[in-house]
Amino acid sequence: MTLSMPRICCLDLDTFFVSVERLLDPSLAGKPVIVGGRPGQRGVVTAASYEVRALGVRSGMSLTQASQLAPHAVYLPTRHGVYGDYAQRVRELAQSYTPVSQVASIDELFLDFSGCENLYARPGDSAGDDTILRVVRQLTDEIQQRVGLPASAGIATSRPVAKVASALAKPRGVLLVAAGSEAAMLAPLPVRKFPGIGPVAERKLHALGLTTLGDVAAAPSSVLSRVFGAWTHGIQRGCRGQGAHELARERPAFQEHDPAGLYLGSISNERTFREDVRDPDCIAAMLCSLCERVCYRARKRGVRARTVTLKLRYADFQTLSRSRNITATSSELELYPVVLELFRRARTRRRPIRLLGVALSRLGPHDAQLRLFDDGDAALHHAIDDLRQRYGYDALHLALSTRERRG
DNA sequence: TCTGGGGTCCTAGGACCC
DNA sequence: TCTGGGGTCCTAGGACCC
Fold it and tell me: Can you give the pLDDT at residue A96?
């Protein structure tokens, strides 16, 4: 039996948004920094520096709570447009080390170094693990020097174990889990540390008396199936460190099709109002603005949606959605009436509204056949998109959606 | 301490068809 | 008239991730 070697690497940028903000404003170095918005605003912490983590601040925590724990921290808004370029530079650097990678999120990347030992081996290395460890350290050093961002990495035989290891390695660390020691490394950790076990599964596991990953690994599958259902076998293998030993090749974005020939994925935008609203004009303006936004993104991507979903959250946080299959479109003029209809169907209570969202899914390519019938809209959208390209997204909006902007 | 916004994936019931 | 199952699509909801 051949034992698989730890060659899967999870590369993770430390406190990513905070690190980029510090790069852009060096005076923030060493200060307690919270990215996500100002105290008093509706919102949550999207990134917290280690200085405020020491005070108990965590990402996902409400800004109100964060401001009580860290009243003197520097609070910054999340600047979504700014971080992508830095993430891309890190990806390009990492991908120059190995041809097989998977982008997991804006600040997280998986790399597969299988077969690369010989390429990087040096006479001093006593084993392939030495080689990989040295190469990954070199990569994180290079990210720090060339891009200016701190990164950590975990290396293991499987993706979930590599991810757990990268979390343990933070900050600025690299941790390799030797083949055969995965189960022992995982066993003492709380169940929440394993990717895929969230607050709900954690609660159910605790109710069964299972608090560590070792408990999960040892539990009878008949017990686990009450928590994980069809995923029972996979999670148990994962907790025993037996996950897949190679990384699937990255699929090109928007090229993988489902059996119906549609692209996988979705495009959505949602907004929480600064204060709960009941004014119908205000609601209509927001719905219109959301339609514009998702359609603009769909056109930029060159896709049309065959399903539209409206999301509604009431002031008491009750959240519901209504969706409908439609003739493929990327036009806000076509989408808006449908969204309005979905909203009317969804809104059965008189309570004020906290959040509205619009999502496009079952995306497909622009169809040359269909195009013959709607060249009028196509010309209009081309003109709109061109103006936005030159003067910014907010250069123009449908009249209905401007009210939301002024308010 | 009242809880953002972008996603992915899974489940499940009912309609509808064969 | 009452009886089936299997397969697929549509819709709604929920868990989870960063």
Answer: 96
In the set A21, A51, A92, A108, the catalytic residue is A108
pLDDT tens digits for range A201-238: 999 999 999 999 999 999 999 999 889 988 899 999 99
Q: How far is the CA of A402 from the C1' of B9 (A)?
A: 36
Please give, chain by chain, protein residues whose CB is below 7 Å from any atom of strand C: A 60, 104-108, 163, 194-202, 259-260, 307, 309, 319-325, 345
Residue A202: partners with Cβ closer than 8 Å, 6 or more residues away? A191, A192
pLDDT confidence of residue A407: 43
pLDDT at residue A383, as a whole number: 86
What residues have CB less than 8 Å from A320, skipping those under 6 apart?
Answer: A311, A312, A346
